[in-house]
Fold this sequence. Notes:
The chain is mainly beta. It contains one helix and 13 strands. 4% of the residues lie in helices and 32% in strands. 16% of the residues are buried.
Amino acid sequence: MTDTLPPCPECASTYTYQVDALLTCPECGHEWSPDQGNSSEDQVRDSVGNILLDGDTVTVIKDLKLKGSSSVVKVGTKVRNIRLVAGDHDIDCKVPGFGQIGLKSKFVKKLLD
Ligand SMILES: [Zn+2]
């Protein structure tokens, strides 16, 4: 243990203290993990926990009905060159026969090859 904890990344307070694996700031209430940067929380993961990146190829793991249409993206559909975006549908991609659509990362699986 060291008594020099890093200052709060939000408000730069030096009165931070450790609670289990987290550091806590008493001044602004911010909590963070000292051994992981904030970046890991921003990572998008597929249905089985693989980290997804721009340009990855994924397959759809269940039939997905497209909103506002009777079309269904079938399970097993391969989607190339995905792009990660913010929001509920966090994958922006072009699906053959459907065009540009948004998918949810939990309904895809990264194709590892
Ligand atoms: Zn703070």
